[in-house]
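User: Modeling request: complex.
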Amino acid sequence: MINKIQLSDKTTNFLIALGKSSLALVTALFIGGVIISLGGYSFVEVYVSIFKGSLGTSRGLILTLATATPIMLTGLGFALGIKVGIVNTGLEGQLYAGAMIAALVGAYIPLPSGLHTAVALLAGGAAGGLIGALMSLFKIRFGAPEVITGIMLNSVVMFFTSYLSNVPLKPEGAAAAQTKEIFETARLTRIVPRSQLTTALFIAILMCILVYFMHKKTVWGYQMMVIGLNPRAADVAGINSSYMYTAALSLSGFMAGLAGSGLVLGIFRRFIEEVSSGLGFQGIPVSALAGHNPLGVIASALLFGALEAGSLIVNQSTAIPFEFVDVVQALVVVFVAAPAMITDPFKFVCMKIRKRRLTDAISEVPHEEGE
Amino acid sequence: MELIKMTGITKEYPGTVALKDVDFYLKKGEILSLLGENGAGKTTLMKILYGMEKQDKGEIYINGEQVSFSNPNDAIARGICMVHQHFMLVPAFTVTENVIAGIEPTKNKYFVDHKQAEDRVRELINRYNFNIDADAKIESLSVGEQQRVEILKALYRDASILILDEPSAVLTPNEVDELFVTLRKLQSQGTSIVIITHKLRETMSIADRAMVLRSGLLTHDSVDPSLSSVQELSELMVGRLIRLDNRQPSEKIGSVMFSVKDLVVKDDRGVERLKGISFDIREGEILGFAGVEGNGQTQILEAVTGLIQPESIEMTLNGEIITGDARAHIDCGIGHVPEDRSTMGLVGGMSIKSNFILGYHGYPDVCKNKLMRWKEIYAFGENCRENFQVKTPNIEAPVSSLSGGNQQKVVMARVLSREQKVLVAAHPTRGLDVGAMEYVHQQIFDFRDQGKAVLLISAELDEVVRLSDRLMVLFEGKIVAECDPTEFTKTELGLLMTGHSVETVRGMAS
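Assistant: Request completed. Predicted assembly structure:
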């Protein structure tokens, strides 16, 4: 009996969250449509080609899944931070660190096939995790706000890796900034030949499930929840917050590092300067749309992947500037970040209805009780 | 005719009926005490009158005219103002700026007319003898003065009906007296006042009439406080006999169990907040600390629970030295009921079930191989709920959905359902009604009677005197007196707490 109530409670909460996110999406599509129309284009055409480009064709579907892979990991990284109340703005840098280390392990340390990929992935993840741990150290030892240190470390890592790929590690004769190509043994398998869809997708999904499990079932997850909701109570309860902050930020950075490694080992086969253009930061809206729930991150990364893939097709097949798709994407984020913007108008309508009912009720009652 | 009449007010929240068919009335110029336990529906009823909540059923009349408020502004327009338990003031603003915020008088349409505002505020302060400086910053005022600013805000908005939600919860006894003087003054000028409270002494000393709510039902609508005793009022409120005046001294005090020596604590600025205090607690003994808040109580608590590392301390439990962090102290068997349950004791957004294990989440019955044993935790939580009478339909609900008394029961249950050697209890009944208070007191007595040691800190003198087997008075980081709780009268204890020496106090008595 009690178990039933429990379940239905959880289900309703889940449905509410899902409803909110869907509502945000619909509202964003609607307003995006208005803006596209104002721009003199047909929003029907845009939405149809987004759909075709992302889900309607097998090529689109592959692109969607491929685009979703790295932001699933960075989104998961962001959610890991939020669980303990930390905004990890350093995901971008952590991704670069992971990409560089994975490229180095892949290109310079010969290992047997399979093992090589695993080692390179882990090393890349660890590199990102290390940057995360550094942020935590700055926070707990010196009280430096992680939002600032994250942004600053982004610059440090991105410019340093840029230097490495431009000067000391650049292969002779290469035109663009890059490192030596990785050994074939280190490659991630492509699920579909000659596409960008690699087994990194499975790794990303697996990570989301593992983190969900950790949050729900382990004592670490419990402690993280307490810290995130009430840090003072965590101290009183004898929870070592410094340790848990470090654990959460390391794991968060690990996911971003893994995202970078996946791109290098699966798609580019070397470190390139443009390995990510904001994929780390894209983790923020991905996680937000999912309500910072690790399983939700899977779905929300797929949605963002679809929009991204769709925008490429819009650009190729129509005359409409793909920036319009960016507008829609940004609107989704805005409406997710400010749920009151969509729920309040609804509340307002509900209130009006309730008010009318009340005034009706009030005008009825005196007749019943009239003396 | 009544100034305000509310008839048949019913309000339901999902799962609970907050108010059921309640009739309320208020006469012009009277002070009414709305009495009831935590969660009886007092605040909900007044929020409905103030337009913050909407009733499901029932009507409201002012001077016989039916009204319907959709928000507090509607209520304010009819002269009804509510002063909340937690003040809503801007600390960096002056009294005047706070009072006029929202309805600033203007000149030339866009500019605030400071002159006019100040004159009006000064005039109000003088008329009601509020004794505050209109130019003072809020942050420089005492809590009692801040409360007067809140009342001033209401008066500035021409309130003729004032609702005060637990006005004395944050005040010292002296400030409470001052508040009552203020309220009498307002009454003499024709203001009608409703005080929401569960404190009986207050009701008796200020109210003309008391209405009693119990579990959402109006049980008595016209009690004359001057004709009732505390005993009778608490019986009306809780529905059964409550005894809070009897002491239960320990029958068996053993050898020293918990000992603290040379405790020195400095704060961030290097000021000594505890100047080398020492105390022992024996088996089966409750040691109480009395003192005005801010004289080192917090530091004692933080030191003996491992939350801070003092400059110096030598703490032993059954002869063994205790050092380390909060974790180590919990593991030694020092149970902690923290000062503030909502910020320190509980995680509001987390389920009741999860709060039952907070601090003990690594223990083998809760967690095995780093995995939470949620099934066992659920069973444990159900047990706690039953043994400690936590009123909730579902322990999966967030703990913040419980009333204050039930939240405190969760904290007590967490600590007392495990093997503890020492109980460190700070303000264990703060904000609780008499029923819950009696319950918590009994729990503490029972714990002591198992031959355990209790360290009690409370701002309520009545509570310290009732519970303690031995009493220490704390003043400016030092223990200025150690005595049997009945050795001094409350007035004398009050003098000791404010820095008078034992000799002076004894001299005055004889």
